[in-house]
Amino acid sequence: MIIEVIKKEEIKTSVWSGGKTNEYVIYPYNAQYADKDFIFRISSATIEVVPSEFTRFDGYRRYLSMLEGDLKLYRHGKEEYYTTNTLFSFDSEEDITSYSLGKDFNLMLHRSIEDEVVQISSDAVDTKAVYLFIFGLVDSIAVVNNVCYSINQYDCLIIINEESDDISLTLDQKAIIGYW
Predict the structure, then answer these.
(1) Which ranges constitute the DSSP H helices of 64-169?
(2) Is residue 64 within 8 Å of residue 87, measured between CB atoms?
(3) CA-to-CA distance for 58 and 36, rounded, in angstroms?
(4) pLDDT for res 117
(5) 164, 130 Cβ separation under 8 angstroms
(6) According to a count of CB atoms within 10 Å of the terminal CB, is the N or C end of the chain lower?
(7) Interatomic CA distance for residues 80 and 87, integer angstroms
(8) Which phi and psi angles does 90 have, rounded to 5°?
(9) Which residues touch 47 (CB under 8 Å, ≥6 apart)?
(10) How distant is the alpha carbon of residue 59 from its chain centre?
(11) What is each CA distance from 61 to 23, 108, 116, in whole angstroms?
(12) pLDDT at 19
């Protein structure tokens, strides 16, 4: 089992048409975003241009949550509104236009992934999932199999559990948690 805390200060930044993106992890590690050959990708982006078009990415499902600011968007010609730290899930093939400025969390999952759990919670988790992540909304402590990990705001803890060993997780603060 591989457990790694990815600090927000250590991640690479790239530019997209509406702002900047910080890629925390792309898996497999040798995958390339532009090649669309990844199973999952965790990132955070700034939205600096209004309006901005969400990037279409065929074959992927996305989970997004605004970390700073609220999200006002148009999807299927209808206005939708999401407050800070509310998860929004959508098919990455959809045409979505955002009319918000701020910073977001973004998880992209390949369609081959089924039965994922993605939530904002501080509830304990017991799982044998192969992949698990915790994205810190505030400074917090995560306890994984009785080992404490310090997660600062906007840091990401990732677990690769190819052996499907038992994972016991507790958190002292709400975070974005996902596993599959």
Answers:
(1) none
(2) yes
(3) 9
(4) 98
(5) yes
(6) N
(7) 13
(8) -160, 160
(9) 18, 19, 69, 98, 100, 101, 102, 103, 104
(10) 17
(11) 17, 6, 11
(12) 85
Predicted local confidence at residue 15, as pLDDT = 85
Fill in the DSSP letter of residue 111.
Answer: T
The 8-class DSSP code of residue 8 comes to G
Q: Report strand pairing: 102-110 vs 60-68.
A: antiparallel
Which tokens is 40 given? Answer: 């999952």
- Output the DSSP codes for 16-70: ETTEEEEEEEEESTT--GGGT--SEEEEEEEE-SSSEEPPP-TTEEEEEEEEES-
User: Are the beta carbons of 170 and 146 closer than 8 angstroms?
Assistant: no
Report d(CA 56, CA 132) in Å as an integer: 25
The first and second tokens of residue 4, run together, are 């790694």
DSSP state of 138: S
Query: In sequence order, what DSSP letters do the residues of 117-173 get, joined into one string?
Result: EEEEE---EEE--SEEEEEESSSEEEEETTEEEEE-TT-EEEEE-TT---EEEEESS
Please report, for residues 127, 155, 156, the alpha-carbon distance to residue 151 in angstroms, rounded to integers and kept in the order given: 20, 6, 7
pLDDT at 30 over 90: yes
Q: What pLDDT does 116 receive?
A: 97
